[in-house]
Amino acid sequence: MSGQADEMQGFGERRMAQGAATIRMVATVTGLAVLSAGAAGAQDFAFNVVTIEGNQRVADGTILSFAGISAGATLSAADLNTAAQQIRESGLFETVDVVPQGGTLVIRVVEFPTINRISIEGNTRIRDAQLLPLLQSEPRRAFNPVQAEADTNAITQVYASEGRINAVVTPRIIRLAENRVDLVFEVAESGVTEIERISFLGNRTYSEGRLRRVLDTKQAGLLRALVARDTFSPDRVAQDRQLLTDFYMSRGYADFEVLNVDVTLTSERDAYLVTYNIREGQQFNFGTVTVSSTIPGVDPAVFQDAIRTRDGAVYSPVTIETDITRLERLAVQRNVNFVRVEPRITRNERALTLDLEYVLVEGPRVFVERIDIQGNGTTLDRVIRNQVGVVEGDPFNPREIRDSARRIRALGFFENATVDTRQGSSANQVIVDVGVTEGPTGTLSFGANYNTDTGVGLLASYGQSNFQGRGQQLDFDLSTAETNQRLSFRFAEPQLLGRDLRGGLEFSYRQTNNENASYDTQNGRFSPSLAFPVSDNGRLSVFYAFNYADLTNVATTSSQILRDEETIGAVATNSLGYAYSWDSRRAGIDPNTGYILRFGQEFGFGDSQFIQTTAFAGAETKVLNEELTLRATVEGGYLDYTDGQSRVTDRFFLGSRLMRGFDAGGIGPRARDGDDAIGGNAFAVARLEAEFPLGLPSEYGISGGLFYDYGSVWDSGYAGQVDYDDFTARSVIGAAIFWTTPIGPLRFNFTEPLDVQARDKTRAFDVTISTNF
């Protein structure tokens, strides 16, 4: 481009505003200045002939229609000025001259050139594919300096949203033959202006580190090249204000308020300083919680038992919303329509309590006329309708409409979703408008992973959460490691038969190659399932499973037990089972405490008859102003073969996933005539853990922890031939480092065994994916 600088000319002046160069047009109306400078009084003109000069593409009639004048009309000087201005505002002309010459009015115009092509140069951080669709200037249309200025600002705003506020965009034109130009936007990219510090004023209960973890925006930290949330975004700050408000409100601070958010640039303009000025107020608890009714024939006592908010509990709007939903649903179940629940709160400032009264009132008798859905190019209408809690003809419930919007957004299929209402064909009918903006729902990845049990492996995965726009989930995973290979396929229909019934299909295959053992295994499983809710927090699933297992290549130095099990060959089993789960976190009432219970059984039939039972219980709570997280879990299982002996491919093993500080198969029954762990038909493990901040900046995402594990695996079925066949408890203590990274939450465990047996295989360090339960 530098070699063609002499060919580049600007139309009018170039203005610099916030680093963005713009073009504006300067047009003149000659002759009018002479007229206005003459006699002091106004003068009228009458023209018998109007001639137009200089136009090539725009027809005379079009220009006259812009001017709004015709031959023979009597015009004042102001009218001529208005006519010139109207022609100029069409955006088609570089200059416009309106010159009265006796009985002839001459309109001289210079047309803007035609844009031959548009290009963006100098952009390396943001691709053309992201910037070009934002431009309103188009090839083969007239160049418009005002539009070029708007396009310049649009490009500048994209760079600003990426944190590059010092980027400079300069529009240039290159003249070509036949009154054509190339429009070029030259970009001088700048570095990212990150958020250097997020601070708070007015916080007394919670530390700055705790509050920073609430916000979606993060300070620039070690992983600034990977974290996209450490740049300033006004939209994200508005979202953070709401997140901060929800955080305090759900913890009883009914008067919490974000007074203002101060955003400043450093003097070097290379970093933002964001300060939240807040007012916490006092923490309130619920006082008395009652239900009353203004509707004749409705007994409040029937509804009193449905509420879940209890006297003395910490105030939270979430619990109120949950109660209102339950009460309104109960009213529908009892055929009481058009019921509205109004929460009425009475403050007791002295006791810091809020007395809550749910009042059942009769709402307007309005019905849903129809539901209109727009914006879904891929997702089928029925997928969205399944999340709307009403159908045509139902009584209109505003709360159900708001909940519908929340459920649609929770699908994860859409970048945005709105549910609004408008007047229907009559006063007692409404139309529900559902608007969505679809987003990406599929992932395809290739990479490598590392596990301390299996070593380095390559993996490929494909996932689709909205398969063919039907809301179905499809996942495919393939991984290979030094000692094992895995293949899995999962498919799920969340609304089977149009009901809240999840249908699933799973296939998996795993092959081990001497994985911490002196033998190889092959395991396959095919399992269709159905899952459905049985309570607000409870879910039940039932399934059928076909399992295939084979034990091969047992080393000659291995135990006779394993060599005998190898002679059985491949075994195929059929089973039916169920699994029940109860999770208090589904209701989301208490943000600081969660409980989970899981229990399941699988019943083998046919050639192999067995009962396998597994159970899990976990609890988590946050104390000391939520700086310290305490977790406790208990897990166990029992396998009972009623018509024979289990094999090593069936029994339980304890590794670092279930009990930290030991190799895979590092504890439990071990053959006396070899060094092989052969697993057990029963296991039980208890885990205690505390997680706490280490004093590092919160943007690093690093915290510490201490843990204690206690458990064992036993009952191999070979009493007298193995060591540790009874319940021989082990215990281990350790420290952990938790690191929240852009690729996932990791934990590094450093362990020290307290109670081990002579033949156990211990491990002092391992790396795993961090999970709560």
Q: What's this, in brief?
A:
This protein has 12 helices and 37 strands.
Over the alpha carbons, how many angstroms does the gyration radius reach?
A: 36 Å
- Tell me the name of the CATH class of the largest domain: Mainly Beta
Mean pLDDT: 86
Strand order in the largest sheet:
20-21-22-23-24-25-26-27-28-29-30-32-33-35-36-37
CATH architecture of the largest domain: Beta Barrel
Main sheet characteristics: 16 strands, antiparallel
Tally of helical segments: 12
How many β strands by DSSP?
A: 37
Oligomer state equals single chain
Overall body shape: globular
* N-to-C span: 60 Å
Whole-number total of structural domains: 6
Helix-residue proportion: 10-25%
Subcellular location: Cell outer membrane; Membrane
Keywords: Cell outer membrane, Membrane, Repeat, Signal, Transmembrane, Transmembrane beta strand
InterPro entries: Bac_surfAg_D15 (IPR000184), BamA/TamA_POTRA (IPR010827), D15-like (IPR039910), OM_assembly_BamA (IPR023707), POTRA (IPR034746)
Function: Part of the outer membrane protein assembly complex, which is involved in assembly and insertion of beta-barrel proteins into the outer membrane.
How do the helices and strands line up, and which of them pair or pack?
Layout: E1 14-17, E2 20-23, H1 32-37, E3 44-46, E4 49-53, H2 60-67, E5 74-76, H3 77-88, E6 93-101, E7 104-111, E8 114-121, H4 128-131, H5 145-161, E9 168-176, E10 180-188, E11 194-201, H6 208-214, H7 234-249, E12 257-265, E13 271-279, E14 285-293, H8 300-304, H9 317-333, E15 339-348, E16 353-362, E17 367-374, H10 381-385, H11 398-410, E18 414-423, E19 429-438, E20 442-451, E21 455-467, E22 472-481, E23 484-493, E24 502-513, E25 520-533, E26 538-552, H12 560-566, E27 571-583, E28 593-605, E29 610-623, E30 628-641, E31 670-671, E32 682-693, E33 702-714, E34 722-723, E35 730-741, E36 744-755, E37 765-769
Parallel strand pairs: 4-7, 8-10, 11-13, 14-16, 17-19
Antiparallel strand pairs: 1-2, 3-5, 6-7, 9-10, 12-13, 15-16, 18-19, 20-21, 21-22, 22-23, 23-24, 24-25, 25-26, 26-27, 27-28, 28-29, 29-30, 30-32, 31-34, 32-33, 33-35, 35-36, 36-37
Organism: Yoonia vestfoldensis SKA53
Main location: membrane
Family: Belongs to the BamA family.
